[in-house]
Every structure is written in C-alpha cells, then in structure tokens.
Amino acid sequence: MPMSATPVSTSLDKDRVSARRPGGLAAFIENEANLGYLLLIPTVVIVLGLIGYPFLLAMYYSFTDKVMAKSEFSFVGLKNYINLANDPVFRKTILNTFNYTVTAVFFKILLGLFMALTLHALTVGRKFFRAAFLLPWVVPSSLSVLAWLWMFDPQFSIITYFLRSLGLIEERIPWFGDPTLAMAAVQTVNIWRGVPFFAMIILAGLVTVPQELYDAATVDGANSIQRFRFVTFPHILPILMVASLFSFIQTMGDFQIVWILTHGGPINSTHLIATLAFRTAIQGSNLAKGSAIALFLFPFLILIIALQLRYLRRE
Amino acid sequence: MSLSISKSLQYRSRRAFSRAILIVSLAFFAFFTLFPFVWMVLTSIREGSELYQVGKNPFAVKHLTLQHYYLLLTETRFLQWLGNSAFVAICASAIALVVGLAAAYSLGRLRYRGGGFAALVVFATYLIPPALLFIPLNTVVNRLHLSNTLWALIVVYLTFLVPFIAWLLSGYFKSLPGELADAARIDGASRWQAMILIDLPLILPGVVSVFFFAFTMSWSEYLYAFTFIRSTSKLPVAVGVVNALQVGDVYFWGQLMAGALLGSIPVVIIYSFLMDYYLAGLTAGAVKG
Predict the structure, then answer these.
(1) Which chain A residues have a beta carbon less than 8 Å from that of B142?
(2) In chain B, N or C: fewer CB atoms in 10 Å?
(3) Domain residue spans in chain B?
C-alpha cells in the first residue's frame, strides 16, 4: 500500500512545481540541455574567436606573403614551406627543438622521480621540503631565468667559480659562446624549472600505493628495487604518462628560457620553434614565414592530444 | 640466536645506508632547486662593486646594502609594472572565472548532446602552447584596437585561463554528490536555483583557489606580454624587469635580482597559502587532464 502512494505524491509535487514556474527564460533554462548550451556560449565565443580564428588566420598567412604593417598581400601557395625546407637555420631549429625537448623531458622525469622518492621517504619535514622544492616551478620563469643568466655570466659566473674551486676546470667557460654548452645550459634551466612539477605529480601517485602491496611483495621476498619495479612503478605509470605528455608539448613550445638566455645563439644553435618564429614574425615583420614556422608545433600538439585522450579514456 | 643478531645488524646497517642516501639526495635537491634563489638574494643585497670582482671569493659578503632595492623602487617604473601585473591578473582571472565556471557547470553537471565533444575541445585547448598562437593573435589584437594596451593581455589571457578553469572546475562539479541538488529540485527549486544555491557554494573553496591560480598564471605570462606591449610604462612585471633594466649590453645585476625577487613575492605568497589546494589541483589536472 505505501508503495502505491509514492507515485501519486510525486506527480502532485510535479504539478505544484510546474505551476510555480514562470515562462520565458526561466522556463527555457529549466531544460537541462538548454541550460547546458547557454552556460557554454561565452566559452564557445572565446574558443572560436581567440583560438579557432587565430589558428585559421595563421594557416592562411602561411600560404601568403603577408608582412606586418602592410595591408596588401598575395597568395603564394607552398612557397613559405618550401623556403623553410631549404633553410638551414630552420632545419637546425627543428633539430634543436627535438634535442631540447627530448633531453629536458627525460631528465625531468628521471630527477622528478628521484625527488618524489626522496620526499616520500622523509618522515619529518616533508611538507617543508615539498614547499621549498616547488619554488622553481611557481616563481615566474622569466624572473628566475634572470638568476640563471647571471649565474652563467661570461665573467662572473658562479658556476664557473664552483667548477674551478673543485679543480674540474682551469679556464673560464664562455657558457653561451659555445653551441653545445649553450644548449646544455638552456636545457638545464628548463629541467630545473620542470623537475618539481613531475616530483609533485609522482609524489601524489606514490602516496596512493596501498601499503598491503608492499607488504605482500616483501613477504614474497622482493628487495627494494624489485618492490619499486613491480609495485611502485606500475602504479604511478599512468599519472607519469599524462604529466610527461603535457610537459612534452609545453617544453616544445618553450620561449622565454632560450630568449632571455641566448636569443637563439650562438649561431642559431639554441633557436627553438617559438624563438625563431618570434624573430621572423615580430622582429622581422614577416608574419607569413613566422606563422609557417610556428605551425610546425601543430602536428605534435595533435599527437599529444590524441595520446592524452587515449590515456584518460583508459583510466 | 646469533643468526637473529646478525640479521638485526644487517637490518640496521641497511637502514643506516638508506638514511645516508636519503640525506645525500635531499641535500642535492635542496642545492639544485634553491641555489639560484640564494644567489639572487645575495646579489641583491651587496654593493655593486662587490659583485664584479674577478678571482675573489664571491661568497665573502662585506657590505650589505639595500641600494638596489631603493634604486629599483625610485629610479625605475617597477611599481608601475607591479600595478600593471595586478590589474591584468585580477581582471583576466575574474572574467575567466565567470566564463570558465559557467562552462564547468555545464560540462561537469549537465547532460546534453555534444557535451562530451565540448569537454574534449576544452581539454584540447588547455594543451595549446602560446607559441602556436601569438603571431595571429597579434593581428587580432590590432583589429580589436587593443594593441599596446593592458586590455590586450586581459583578452588574450582568456585563451589559456578559460580552458584551465573550465577543465579543473568541471572535475570538481563531477565529484559532487548529486543528491543535494536533486532534493532541492524535488522541493521545488528551479534548475537555476539548484545551481546557484546548492552546487555553487559546495565548490566555493575550489573556485577561490582556482581564481588564485589563474592570477599566478597571468602574473607569470611572458610571450604574449612581450609581443603585444611596447611601452615601458605598460609592461607587466614579468617582462618589465627583464626588458627595461638592461641598458644596451649592461645589466644592473643588483637591481635585476631585486626586481626578480620582489616581482615573485605575490605568487610565492599565494602558493604558500594554497599549497595543498594547488597540489590537489595539479594532480587532479594531471589525472583527469
């Protein structure tokens, strides 16, 4: 009997609610889909107007001879891309970007893992060290890179001082005068800034590994390396993949570290896609060629998005 | 008996060994992450003449001085840059919060055709590096007649703030228990009322922390500000300190380091208060996108 009373009271409630509902907008957004679309409108405007449109504009520019401060320009087909393919500076830049990204992401993962394991093993002061180690990641990078610029100063480099004190080198090192050293230097700064990001994400994963799994592995006779290999690592792998993919595309599009430290030099040996695009389009006014350069980031962005979505779906 | 003693000795020495590794590792990371900041502070509080001595111990601080800070605050436009950064960061974050919050509710709480696709697009835009868009955005900014204004930055920062906020907060909305809002609606609340009066207050802590993270992202942005702002008086601090304190090839390292430190303080304060929220958001952002 009480079961049959329930639908009656619900339908009464429904009547009462709908009777109270006014018309117009209020009635319109009472529909779940209508409210959903309405709330999304401002974001759609921004995504279409400030991301979609500029992106198409860049594609369009890359097939023209558009230069800054000149309204007429004409369609040139693939000319910009063909010129880039034959441009040794651009080829060097693509290689630099790969070298920079792969090396930096690799060391960020490796050092991030060690930093996370170190923090995880701490029994006292974990919170303090966690906050302190996060500083390179939170401080505006253009400002912290200034400290590195000073530390790599050709005359007064403190790093050179350390190396000389340790007896590792005799002479002063022109950090940004040598192509290999300059690349290593900008990579080091990128790694320095990114390690805490990985460490914090890995640490969050470490905390969620159930203690029983370690206990079970210990009972089965696993040593600490085996426990890491078979318990810890599989557990943090998904979160590490997502962080690595995110870092990969951000590192690839890096600008300020290289721009502030070397401006792409010496002899273009540290130019990345972003710095070469800036020099070409903004300093050199060649919007068409600059757009074509920057668009080389796009295929990698698509790849990263696809991989990210695969990982997120699997979760 | 002897076996168990040797076992416990073995155990103890292994513990001591791992503790030694821990201390070495901790020292390494402390030095690696913090030395640049130590060097910044040391440089900013010493007399200029002491900074440029070849062959002397660079850690022997003889004369402490605040002259770099004094000159920075009186002789440069540093305070103006701070003001510019604050204005841009507050406006951009506030606008992005309203827009992103609406989208987050829509994507996280409501079900409709195309919702999944919209969430996918928001996630994809969240990954776009600014380097891909700064050239055409320069044209867009010119067409909006915002070239060389702070509003150019406010508008352009929406491109990364809105996807960030929408993505992060939609995760919060998804994790809310739906029963409260359902109960309110059975009691006669409209969908709008359920959203404003029930769901929104529940994620308020998340909203506040996301606002501050948007603030720090705007405060730290470099490429767009460097591209769109030409007047020294209109630069945000993250660009002003880098660009304007360098005269020709001469760097005033004391002032530069003082500026870099003071310019970082607002961001560091925000993080020190919201560390736990930040880490939760970072990992949620990484796990859920």
Answers:
(1) none
(2) N
(3) 2-44, 67-287
